[in-house]
Amino acid sequence: MNRAVQIVRPMLKPDFIQKRREQNEMWVEIQVPCMDNPPSGTNQLNGKSATITPSCARVGEAMVASVTGLWPDTDTNIWWDDPNGQEKMISPTEDTMLVVRADAEGKLNAVFRVPTTALIAVPDPSISPPHRVYFRQYHFLGGIELSFIGREVLKGALVTVGMALMATILGMLFAIPISFFAANNLMSSNAITYVIYIIVRTLLNILRSVESLIIAIVFVVIVGLGPFAGVLALAVHTIAALAKLYSEVIEGIDPGPIEAIRATGANWIQVVRYSVVPQIIPPFTAFTIYRWDINTRSATVIGLVGGGGLGYLLIELIRINDMSGVSAVFISIAAIVIALDYISAKVRERLV
């Protein structure tokens, strides 16, 4: 019961906004693991100076940070940024922000370890691109603004919608030509085209039988974590789904124009151009918009396995037990789905 209360209570206060504040920030580049010519481990910026020793290390090794020029007697948040810009917590348990208070002279010293997740999202650790350790302080100014989690939710929402849109466009571009080869009424005129029809239909059925989540896991292994893997997974599944829907639209069109065009001695391409295409544009458009709606929902789930967007942010927030942030992501997902469902329904009403 106590565990349920600890989870539900912070979810009643979604982390979207915060009091407006001024920030004082410093950062240092370091290398994981050590390679030739590591960075200096020091940085000077606007009167502030920061040093981290050693300037390169392996995962789990201890590092010491020393910063001067900060605001005196002010708490300082310290966290890790991997080369992909993914933030990692470096508290001893790696589930909360490391907070150290600067002294009366604006100095602080902190000891932390390279987080165990530092290399998870790095496609090729052998290249060893620089990581960063950030030091940030705040002064409250009055008023409200988007919180850090609120900004991350907004960015994740844009990535999720963008992933769905890109995957839908890619899927549509490939599905349209494929669908003509998967339509029985167009491909049954002779033995060769009928064999092509059987092959294409079989391949589409195989692709549709594999969930996009499984396809996403495969692409994450191939290209690494991030939205690119999510877009590829959604696009592959969209090609199979849209090609099947498009082909059924083609099979359901009025056969009269097809027979009339064939009677003139037209070839297959001319039959498609003059008797099929004019009949299929409205339903094709409606199905494409509907698929974008579906892909937006799927993009969130795909993010859970590293496909980027809100799903990836959600799993990271759950990992660090930030339930207020989790609540903000849930609300954002619901708002996106409701908005797109309404928009797509209205567009389909006008087209169909």
Overview of this protein structure:
With 352 residues, the protein is an alpha+beta fold. The chain is built from ten helices and nine strands. It folds into two domains: 23-123 and 132-146, Immunoglobulin-like (Sandwich), CATH 2.60.40; 150-351, MetI-like (MetI-like fold). Strands 1, 5, 6, 7 and 9 form a five-stranded antiparallel beta sheet that branches. Strand 2 (42-45) and strand 3 form a beta hairpin. The protein is elongated and about 90 Å long. The two termini are 51 Å apart. The mean pLDDT is 86.
Shape: elongated
CATH superfamily of the largest domain: MetI-like
**Uncertain segments:** none
Question: What portion of the residues fall into strands of 2 or more residues?
Answer: 15-25%
Brief descriptors of the model:
2 domains; 352 residues; five-stranded antiparallel beta sheet; four-stranded antiparallel beta sheet; 10 helices; alpha+beta; MetI-like fold; Immunoglobulin-like; single chain; 55% helix
